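Amino acids appear as letters; backbone shape is given numerically. Here is one record.
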Amino acid sequence: MFAGVARLTGAWRRIQTGTEGIGMAGDMDRVLVTGASGFIARHIVLDLLREGYAVRGTVRSQDAAADVVAAVEGQGVSTEHLDFVPTDLTRDEGWDAAVAGCRFVIHAASPFPASLPKDRFALVPAARGGALRVVEAAARAGVERLVMTSSVAAVYYGHGPAEGRVFSERDFSDVDAPAISAYAVSKTLAEQAAWEAVAGTGLQLVAINPALVLGPLIGGSVGTSARIVQTMMRGWMPVVPDMAFGIVDVRDVALAHRRAMTVPDAAGRRFILSGGSRSLRQIGEAIGHDFPRYRRKMPRATLPDLILRVAALASSSAGQMLPELGPAKQLDMEPARKCLGVVFLPPETAIHATAASLIGHGLC
């Protein structure tokens, strides 16, 4: 680990001083991964390094870069071909340096706070502005293809109940819907802006739209999605709303990003990722089954919808949960299966891996 940190420190200093030839990797294809310290991005970085790519990550601080190096090396993978560039989604500086020499870009960075703001557009400047900065820098640099980490939140919100409807790559969320969350608004507008920005350029774009992402932690950082499992395991969720979500294992998400970079037929498409749907109660039951000592801490009752609807009158946070009430949305995963060749792990595998990681890191 210390050798990796030493390499990181040297690379970081060369980046900061503008030295040429940072992170040179011979004939290896280099991939820029934005927001490299995030939960999904760490798995993407790990997967790419294992497959022989050189990786450049964007982070906001040297400490974040050091965490990524330690996490990757903790998985037994060399960081010899991993370097970093300091950037910020809200600033123009650094993006041209980040994309320089990269054949591909994976734009995984996006704001996803633990608690959502009341203003539905509060996350848009960072999400949409950041997407445009990355797309425009990639186009200027002659990047071949950009894969954007979007979300099912950019697909199915605001369409109202439609029994039997299957949401597909053709659907976008309605950002003017009354109960849509700030996160869904930011993901929708950011992805739409990216599609508009690549029009007329030589840059190919692919969007990856995962459902709730669970799976093993790389390092001790707990993402927003994993906090659902962590909260249950701490016994802080004795009663849950009647909600169900699509769940996808983060390892499948990383695989889908890598294949989306190179599969010819993936260009210009969106891919919804989900291994199946489970309710909050079912998530708790799966944890209790696999980890019996946590069984008593799992949710024991389902909150009536009426209570949440009444709470939504006074709480914007409760209001943003209303679109998730009831059965899970039906999602079309056939493009990901057929075009990208993803064979999805079942939700229980992702739930188990999340819980096991939390226990292993002493986080619950």
